Task: inverse folding
């Protein structure tokens, strides 16, 4: 029997883990221990996803909550080290690019436990983003690299990482496929909000570079407010953004926008798949817009998901250049594009199974 420790802590990591946890259920010879760092802790940022997506309760919760980068990272490392020492796993899985990812990978590598990185090789080439630092370091200390796209494989190659790099596709595509039908049946959010299909915009904003700059956050809200004069704008609000709107006293810019608390994954899938357009700075939401074939405006200067832009499903509208009138024109012109491409990169919905097989092979087990 081999033991695998899975480290998750932020909303997108619960979603990425959901299909992988199912895939591991077929591997009776791998004991999966789930560690929740507690980076996200509000029920609608955390426990809701475990119940909705049928994820096993975490075996440990490090309960670190919020803090500065150093505090959060250090606290996860200190608490995790004790658990790794006790559990003595054969490998550690980390996802994406959050502080939970980096802390988990650092503790494991220093205890000589192999690190397996799901969503390896993504780059924005913007080292001011905390996520970029987290990804680069995690990739360089990981043993198995699960790349979601061909571009990610190339990025790793440019940094000299060529061994054990697997282009497995995107586990978020697996999640989108696995939960779309359930969302159709179980989510009543459109009815509850009185929304009609293709007659509203869905927005999410939480990226630190946007929320922690009063001018940029104001520009984005002003843009959304103007959008809401054409069609309703639904904005499930990340707690970080809610806090910063209050701190910068930007409440008046929110008038006319339908602001909600963060929603669960099923409601989110339903909102995404029926939107006329998605407006976001989230990594995951950009791709999900493509999965549901909904055009997406990304309020950032760059994206790690270049193929969504190349195929014309995604358009970058950097918030420092958001002049409201021009941007609305650009957005409507973009929504009306007819000749959008197909992206093969994200796989066929079996990325999680591929990852489970490769890890099992690494452990020297028969593939279940
Ligand atoms: C983190 C990730 C980011 C990811 C995002 C997903 C890092 C550096 N950033 O950003 O890459 O896109 O998660 O959502 O790891 N808060 C609450 N309740 C919660 C969680 C957060 O109120 O349950 C508030 C706190 O005020 C906290 C702030 O949100 O200070 C930011 O949370 P944090 O986890 O530090 O970063 P995110 O912005 O969520
Ligand atoms: N999401 C959700 N409810 C929300 C906002 C987002 O379920 O209110 C989901 C979204 O569908 C996607 C994931 O959260 O699967 C993306 O996470 P987030 O935007 O927090 O982080 P990022 O992907 O930018 O790291």
Result:
């Amino acid at each position: 029997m081999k033991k695998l420790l899975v480290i998750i802590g932020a909303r997108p990591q619960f979603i990425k883990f959901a299909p992988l946890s199912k895939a591991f259920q077929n591997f009776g010879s791998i004991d999966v221990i789930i560690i929740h760092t507690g980076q996200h802790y509000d029920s609608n940022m955390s426990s809701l996803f475990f119940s909705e997506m049928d994820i096993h309760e975490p075996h440990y919760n490090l309960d670190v909550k919020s803090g500065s980068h150093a505090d959060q990272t250090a606290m996860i490392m200190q608490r995790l080290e004790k658990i790794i020492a006790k559990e003595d796993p054969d490998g550690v899985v980390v996802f994406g690019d959050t502080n939970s990812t980096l802390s988990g990978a650092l503790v494991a590598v220093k205890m000589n436990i192999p690190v397996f990185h799901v969503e390896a090789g993504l780059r924005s080439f913007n080292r001011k983003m905390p996520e970029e630092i987290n990804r680069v370091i995690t990739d360089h200390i990981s043993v198995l690299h699960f790349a979601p796209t061909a571009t990610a494989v190339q990025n790793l190659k440019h940094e000299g990482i060529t061994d054990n790099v697997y282009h497995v596709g995107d586990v978020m595509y697996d999640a989108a496929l696995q939960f779309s039908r359930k969302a159709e049946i179980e989510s009543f959010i459109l009815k509850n909000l009185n929304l009609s299909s293709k007659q509203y915009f869905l927005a999410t904003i939480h990226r630190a570079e946007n929320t922690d700059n009063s001018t940029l956050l104001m520009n984005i809200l002003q843009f959304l407010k103007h959008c809401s004069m054409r069609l309703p704008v639904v904005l499930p609000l990340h707690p970080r953004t809610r806090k910063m709107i209050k701190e910068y006293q930007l409440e008046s810019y929110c008038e006319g926008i339908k602001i909600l608390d963060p929603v669960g994954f099923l409601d989110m899938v339903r909102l995404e798949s029926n939107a006329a357009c998605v407006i976001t700075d989230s990594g995951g939401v950009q791709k999900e817009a493509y999965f549901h074939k909904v055009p997406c405006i990304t309020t950032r200067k760059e994206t790690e998901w270049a193929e969504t832009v190349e195929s014309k499903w995604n358009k970058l509208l950097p918030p420092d250049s958001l002049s409201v009138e021009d941007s609305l024109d650009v957005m409507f012109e973009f929504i009306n594009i007819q000749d959008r491409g197909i992206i093969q990169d994200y796989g066929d919905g079996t990325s999680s199974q591929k990852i489970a097989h490769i890890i099992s092979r690494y452990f020297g087990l028969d593939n279940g």
